[in-house]
Amino acid sequence: MVKWFWQRDKPRRTLSLRSRGELGDAMRVDFAELAPELNRFLGQAAYLQLGYFETLTRLIRATPELDEKEALARAAGAALSKHRGILEIIREQGEDPTEIMLPFQEHLDAFRRKTIGLRPRETLLAVYITAGMLDDFYLALASSYGETGARVADILSEDDDTGQIVTILRHTIESDGEWRSLLSMWARRLVGDTLLVARQALRTERLAEDGDRVEPVYTELMGAHARRMDAMGLAA
C-alpha cells in the first residue's frame, strides 16, 4: 500500500517545554484551573493545525525551487496529519468536528492573516514561530484533560518536519544582513500576537483573578522560542 508524505511513520519531536512531571504538581493544578472546556481545547487545537497546513500549501505555490517545495510539503503534511489526528478524537467524543472548530474560525483566521508577511520568507518564519509556540502551549494545556489530553499531546509531539525550513531560513539570514534585520524585527512582532492567542484560549473569567498562574508557562514558551531563534542565528 502506497503512503503519501503525510502518512509516513515519523519520530516524535522532542518537547521544547519541560515534561509535565517536571512542571510540578502545584503548577499543573493551577494551570488546569485556567484550562477551557475540552471541546474548546480540541476545536482550537484542530483548527490551528489546519491553518498551518493552508498557509504552507500557499507558500508551496509561491516557491519556485523544487527542493524548497518538497520541504514545505513535508511540513504541510505534518500539520495535516496532526489536524486529522485531533479530528479523530473529536469524532470519538461523539461530536461534529466542523461544529467544534467553527466558533474559532474567524478569530484564528484573523490571527493567521496578521502573520502573513509581505514576502514568502516572512510568512515562512511566521509559521515556524507561531506553530512552535502554540504547539508547546497546547502540549502544556493537554495535561489538564486526562487520557484524552495525553492522546492530543502524543499527536502534537509528532515530528513537525520543520528541519529543512530552519535550514532555508538560516541560509536566507546568513546570505544578507538586511534579511537578518528584517526577519528579527518580524519575529519580535509575531511573539505578542501569538501569546495573545494562547491567553485567549484559556478561561478568560479566571484570568482576571488568577492570570499570574499562567506566567510560568509563558516563561517556558519564551525560553523555547529563544532556542528556536538561536538555531536560525537570530536573537529573540
Automatic annotation (TrEMBL):
Domain (Ferritin-like) ranges: 41-199
Q: Pfam families attached here?
A: MiaE_2
Please give the superkingdom of this protein's source: Bacteria
Alphabetized Gene3D superfamilies for the sequence: 1.20.1260.10
Q: What is this protein called?
A: Ferritin-like domain-containing protein
